Amino acid sequence: MKKLKLLTLLLLALSSFTLILLIKSNSPDAKQLLTLSSPKGKVADQHLAGETATEIPSPIDAVVAEAESTTNQTSTDEAPTLTKHHVQIQAIPALSQLPELPNGCEAVAATMLLNWAGLPLTKEEVAHALPTGDMPYENEFGAFVGANPKDVFVGDPFDIGYGIYHTPVAKLMNQWLPGHIRDLTGTSFEDLLGVIAKGNPAMIWATEHMDSPYFDLEWEDETGELVPWYQPEHALLLTGWDDNYAYMNDPMTGEQEAYPLPSFKEAWEFMGSQAITIIG
């Protein structure tokens, strides 16, 4: 009887020792034994349960984590600086309208454009060639009447005058360079800048110093059409631009001037988006 008990104790001890070895090796057999011996199928060893819940990340998890880390780092980086635009057509001498042509800015701007194209015309020759019409005056009925700048120069570029618009100027220039004159009037501001970027200067209508235009006078032309006039109307030669400024040969100063790009855009569009260029 004593031998039987001793044998039983020995077998129990051996079984316990085997189970301990299985648990330490994290064997699935040990987990199964523990599950079977625990109530409701729960793992009896809480330490083992904790180790089982914390698994080593798989290689694909590590790749995803690294990608997320890289994305977060990239999103905090500063945006790259945009490349600055800078277009400037060289070797176009600026001409002054003063003192010979106090109101002849259009003739001088056209002369600079024609000179760039290789025609050795003077500003006086161009001014004399412009069609002219009457300054506004009050007729016998008390109405103001006068010429239309859409057709002729209103007044005299050598003396007192208002000015002239793109159509008659382009028509005159086409007589000297038939087939090479392009009236860009009505184009977008971006397309106008694109013309300069391709290496072609453009005669443009805006205001002196890009000041805000203001209404000055209104009259009727010979057909009865109302002609509103805004001051200080001015014509210049656009030769370059960058992200902040437009560069122009200004007949009023006789120099190349830099005017803020937004101010130029506003004045140019207000004055009808008028522009003329010459193509090869």
TrEMBL record:
Superkingdom of origin = Bacteria
Pfam families recorded for this chain? Answer: Peptidase_C39_2
Q: Where is each Peptidase C39-like domain found? A: 91-252
- The stretch of residues making up the signal peptide is none
Q: What is this protein called?
A: Peptidase C39-like domain-containing protein
What's the source species for this entry? Answer: Paenibacillus plantarum
Q: What is the lineage of its organism?
A: Bacteria, Bacillati, Bacillota, Bacilli, Bacillales
